[in-house]
Design a protein that fits this description.
The structure is a homodimer.
Chain A: E1 2-3, E2 11-19, E3 27-36, E4 39-45, E5 63-66, E6 70-74, E7 76-81, H1 97-112, H2 115-131, E8 134-141, H3 144-154, E9 157-164, H4 178-189, E10 196-202, H5 210-223, E11 227-231, H6 235-245, H7 249-256, E12 263-267, H8 273-282, E13 285-288, H9 290-295, H10 303-308, E14 313-315, H11 328-343, H12 351-358, H13 360-365, E15 383-387, H14 399-406, E16 412-417, E17 420-424, E18 427-428, H15 433-450
Parallel strand pairs in A: 2-5, 2-6, 7-8, 8-9, 9-10, 10-11, 11-12, 12-13, 13-14
Antiparallel strand pairs in A: 1-4, 2-3, 3-4, 6-15, 15-16, 16-17, 17-18
Helix pairs in contact in A: 2-3, 2-15, 4-5, 11-12, 11-14, 12-14
Chain lengths: 453, 453
């Protein structure tokens, strides 16, 4: 038994297997977990302590969740999303990148993204994430107050990044106002709600001016919040930056002084060895989005090399216009497979490594590793319960293999975020899923009618 | 309306969207589908014919399946499996290939695969396939009568291949008996049951002798059944064959005379351009298994090139020891993504192409395209109903994109094979899933206890 057993838990999970994502112990075959005031109060190993203690007894908890045949693990951490883009999911696929962006995505965003659609689409995206086991996201978009509000309304934990871009973006008309807008956004949300952590996102080295990149970095340093940027996503980007600045995107950003331990670089598909060294020295963290990178034919980050160099790498789905799903179990499966075939080595990116990327490493990347990412007493109770009683998860020799190579998001039965039950046996506790789907479906129908086929 | 409306259907699916996988029409927004005597009796386009006809009326069918909000499409065709290997799923992963094979898979197969375990594991694998929308499989293994029996018991359509290998395989001790064994197996199952099509499988150019390869080919030609073989799966295989025979595996097999229109070559990850030409000329068909190839770091077939050359390519999951799931929706998603990033071209392997590979092209590869693979009057009613009312499938702009990039096997609600309802709203109609899982779980526990950790 670890933790304080004398207090009565709000929620008691009984008879679960536990994958703690810690080293001591990594796995508990049969345990009860007590949750109180949003935190993990105790983890009782029932094999080690066959006699039940006085408290932590089922009768003493406000809510009991019987979990025999289920696996408790930390909720997954999706380190890169553009959630409102679910509204455009499947609108245009299999197209050349520039035709896709300029012919469909940018025009559709300009016309259809507003406070109302962003909120509605974010609710839908969050429902999808919860149903597939993600409890924390890091989103980068516009109309971000509405995204934060959706997180509060669905009960998700989120790093919500105000986006900046130096050509027409839906809600940012005047580039001089950017730093002020960033300050105001951070003021509204820093210490505003424990589930929401505000941050800042510059779209890319090729869509933001040097001034914007530096200004937003300055604000992020002042306010101690993460600074995100798409970096070295495509070969074309590398070519554009080289042509304009006579150096690669990484060196360009480093000369601007924006690469440091507060920087989260997204994608990083085109890196030289010396750039990898530089990113490691600067303490930059990397969000890896393999499914999106593959679908857009963007390239592939050299993740095994990044890990060998000690760089923190988390997983992201990217937006659903380029994925087109938010299932982080599938992203783990992809991350485990793609680097094996690229490196011609089946031992790289083993299941345990990939699970860490999807949980504690993702939390570390977002600066949340002291709060979430493992099942440990005192950490926030962001937990998912995976139903192991499924044909595709039978028989069960090793949990990590099963979770990475055989499971999918739909195996998640129950989700607890910040100690609150959000999803129970695949039914939402307090949001109306049908209503959320119908609202976005209506918006999609409108887009279908207005856009040429 | 197409088809005979005057007959009373056994099953009537009402108000479904239909992805026919034909060109005329590819999609019907709202249709009723009548099924009788195992076949599709009629497809009634309700938008085109708003007035219901006399028959085909709901009252007239023996069983009605209301399908509003669901999509009917052809059942998926998994062209390469080793189904009994679900028993070893997750037993050993992330290992070097030879350590994995010789240290775990071959010894475990030798010790634990027998008539009883093969039957039990096949039932489990088939349950998993049905739950993820596969209605036809092509399996290559040993103890194959038990696999065929499992297909009959679960109601699946299967091409069941007797396996041949020239080192210790569980049920083939004497290599001289191989041709006779093949003949006997074919005699038992040819015209034995409409759902079972027997075929022959030689394990590979490096595990079968030239005599075995030729003898089994001779029998397959005599009896007009498909001849399967793993081919050019790894670079090591190419090296071994080159060292032994002074030519590549493809040229070696061609010199033996075993490459023809009845040959299904599995994997084909290492092909030169001239070998692709040769395979195309010979009419060889190729089963593509990207998830397995990636997990084992085996290599990757040049599928866009094969398709441009007119070669028929189907999709396979391979066995669950190397995948580790049988979800063909995930395989489609993988096939669509991996070649885009390899070719640096987001337009290759578009959703429609990949869906054809998972349905009608897979059927063509198995010689079953006149029976299955499309939703057409007169074809066998092998149909799956996908529940579109899900957050990750909302909104819906284009069905093919949604199915390939966002859907997964767990979205399949209902499965009909050969006109019989097998799965209804994710509940099996006539098999006891819990019992099947428990039987294999017990076998897995035994293996865990007997094998060193």
């Amino acid at each position: 038994m670890t933790g304080r057993a004398e207090e009565i838990p709000d929620i008691l999970i009984t008879d679960a297997s536990v994958l703690t994502m810690t080293d001591h112990p990594p796995f508990i075959a049969r345990a009860d977990i007590g949750i109180r005031d949003g935190l993990i109060l105790f983890i009782r190993d029932k094999e080690a302590l066959p006699e039940p203690g006085r408290s932590g007894h089922p009768d003493a908890a406000r809510q009991i969740i019987p979990a025999r045949g289920q696996l408790v693990m930390p909720g997954l951490v999706n380190t890169h999303t553009h959630l409102p883009m679910v509204l455009l999911r499947g609108l245009a696929d299999d197209l050349p990148l520039m035709e896709w962006l300029n012919g469909f995505i940018f025009p559709a965003e300009g016309r259809f993204m507003n406070e109302k659609t962003v909120y509605a689409a974010s609710l839908l995206a969050m429902a999808e994430m919860i149903l597939s086991g993600t409890t924390t996201f890091c989103d980068s978009y516009f109309f971000v107050d509405r995204i934060a509000q959706a997180a509060l309304d669905t009960g998700m934990r989120g790093v919500v990044c105000q986006g900046f871009i130096d050509f027409s973006a839906p809600d940012v008309a005047d580039s001089r106002k950017k730093a002020r807008l960033a300050e105001q956004f951070l003021s509204r949300w820093q210490n505003g709600h424990p589930l929401i952590k505000p941050a800042l996102f510059c779209h890319s080295p090729y869509t933001c001016s040097s001034e914007t990149l530096k200004e937003i970095k300055r604000v992020s340093l002042d306010r101690q919040v993460p600074y995100l940027i798409h970096l070295a996503e495509t070969k074309d980007e590398v070519g554009m930056i080289k042509e304009k600045y006579r150096k690669t995107p990484v060196l360009y950003l480093d000369d601007l002084g924006v690469l440091d331990a507060g920087t989260i670089a997204v994608h990083c598909n085109w890196l030289t060895d010396v750039e990898i060294e530089l990113l490691a020295c600067r303490g930059v963290k990397i969000s890896h989005c393999p499914e999106s990178n593959m679908k857009l034919a963007a390239g592939m980050a050299p993740v095994p090399k990044l890990l060998r160099r000690g760089i923190t790498v988390g997983l992201g789905t990217d937006g659903t216009a380029s994925n087109n799903n938010l299932d982080l179990f599938r992203e783990m499966s992809m991350a485990a497979r793609i680097h094996k075939v690229i490196e011609s080595d089946p031992t790289v990116m083993d299941a345990g490594t990939v699970l860490r990327m999807g949980t504690i490493d993702g939390a570390r990347l977002l600066g949340l590793d002291r709060q979430i990412g493992t099942v440990e007493v005192g950490k926030a109770a962001d937990l998912i319960l995976v139903d192991l009683n499924q044909p595709h998860l039978t028989p069960l020799y090793r949990c990590p293999s099963q979770l990475v190579y055989a499971a999918s998001g739909s195996d998640v039965a129950t989700v607890i975020i910040d100690g609150k039950l959000v999803l129970h046996n695949r039914t939402f506790v307090h949001i109306d899923l049908q209503n959320i789907m119908e609202t976005v479906r209506d918006m999609g129908n409108l887009i279908s009618r207005e856009l040429p086929a």
